[in-house]
Amino acid sequence: MDLVAILRIAVRALARNKLRSSLTMLGVIIGVGAVIAMVGVGQGASKQVQDQIAAMGSNMLFVSSGTVNRGGLRLGWGQTKTLIYDDMKAILQESPAVKTAAPGGQTSAQVVFGNDNWFTNIQGTEPQYFDIRDWPIVAGTPFTQAEVDSSANVAVIGASVRQNLFGATDPIGQTVRIKSLPFKVVGVLNSKGQSAAMGQDQDDVIFVPITTLQKKLTGETWLRFIVVSAVSKDATYAAQQEITSLLRDRHRIRTGQDDDFMVRNLADVADLADQSSRVMTMLLASIAGVSLIVGGIGIMNIMLVSVTERTREIGIRMAIGATEGDVQRQFLIEAIVLSLIGGAIGILFGVGSSLLITKVLGWSVLISPLAIVAAAVFSGAVGIFFGFYPARKAARLDPIEALRFE
Amino acid sequence: MGTITQIDATRTVSPAAPGELIRVEDVHKYYDLGETRVHALRGVTLTITRGEFVAIMGASGSGKSTFMNLLGCLDKPSSGRYMLEGIDVSKLEKKDLAVIRNRKLGFVFQGFNLLARTTALENVELPTLYARLNKDDRVRRASESLQMVGLGDRIDHYPSQLSGGQQQRVAIARALVNSPAILLADEPTGNLDSRTSVEILDIFQKLNDGGLTIVLVTHEADVARFAKRTLVFRDGKVRRDEPVKDRPRAQEVIKTMPSIEED
User: Considering the entire predicted model, what is its pTM?
Assistant: First the structure.
């Protein structure tokens, strides 16, 4: 039987009970809309995390000094004093998977400019750090290797520090005081935003040469961390291996003993973050999926009522030559039309609510074409699945009984 | 029209005689209701040839409706054989029975049984839809069929906008649209006033004049006399089978009736 005619019959049958049909569709509309909006929210979050991780720097590894065990008291990362500048030089020389590396020391201090002051994080490093972290300077220049070598009092400031300390004033060439020592501001960093892993403000920082930090601000001779850039993304795992064995060797750690340092691969962090947002997306989508199934049950319910109401019609159709297949197809298509129209409206509803979420809550929502296609296909499948039993019931009717039905 | 009628007494399977349309051989039908078995038909044997106009009569419970359902391929006999145009229908699957109903049989019911909120044309079109004709053929044949019953000007009317007689004519047009071998009418005048009843019978007589075989179930002798042959059922058996004498022409009868304008 041709599809146009069968579709017309289905649409007309549905149009006969407009309120009932629309209420039935509502279940599917909410289901499909929820799936699209929730997947959008999940994927938006996932994308945000990935962007932030990409912003942390390319092919980056993070070597931090390790924990120490003092008579059973373990103090957490960053407590050992064994990670030193020579370790970094050794990594650069001996690990072929490593492209560049920069040392890192850290303290925090009250920084004063004119009448303003600001408590912030002071990090010591070398100029290549900004390349490794993929962190451009928007004004001025980074400090030079010569300035590192001479422990010069120069500083590169983060966007938040600039804002809090200088306001409208051009910071380049100005002098700030850190622990009473004057530092000349030579550069301002681009804003990096919150970190993906911890959610802290990455721009609330001042960079000074590592030598200056160690000699004049902290007095530490060891490094808190080394930032390493691998030659390629695939090389990060090799670099991780090489650095680990190299440092164990240099720190004379015997087999079976714990590392006194930690190598973190940002690709791992990225995978982890990606995985967790994926799990969240799945969770949201499956909760939304449940509402789609509830919508499907609504369709089944109404189709069963419809079959009972139209028993006589089914009898007439059978008497004039409709086969079981014809009757079954008619009711199945009705259920599918119901769920597909619901699905189409649901897609609009889902896209609309995604846009609303973006606008009102400020979350980034990513509407993927795949989710839309999947929702459309799934709503059709819901129609087939939940329409099948009522259609089967209609087709199995005895024409004589059906004709007698009042 | 040949009205060769006979009861096949021999019960043996013989090849379809020329002109033979229906051959029913020792057909039984019973329903098992729990522990009791209800016999609706207890051995019916008869033949109907092409061009006959048969009225089946009988009180309720006589088995005439059951017999009609069997003739209409809506049901299968419990035992015995039913040959329609040489096909042993009693051995067919449900699906094939639907095809037989669609191509070889036309139904007219007491309650008209038109689909509500569906135009006359679309109602008539339905059997052609199940015959899988294309749209153009469907519309052409449906409108031809409606013209044949004198409703060519009301194809877009809904059943609710038509009188009982007109609705029954739409039903007849629907029954005829696939050019069936036989028209089965179950109390077609049961819901109609006497004048309209005669008008419907007039249509039947004219169709029969054109060569169409008609089987009509009625409990009114007044209606049965317009046929050429009557079968009287009682207790699941054919008790009388005789040609109608002095058959009136419906067309003539209408002229004698008081005119109540229907349209």
Answer: 0.71
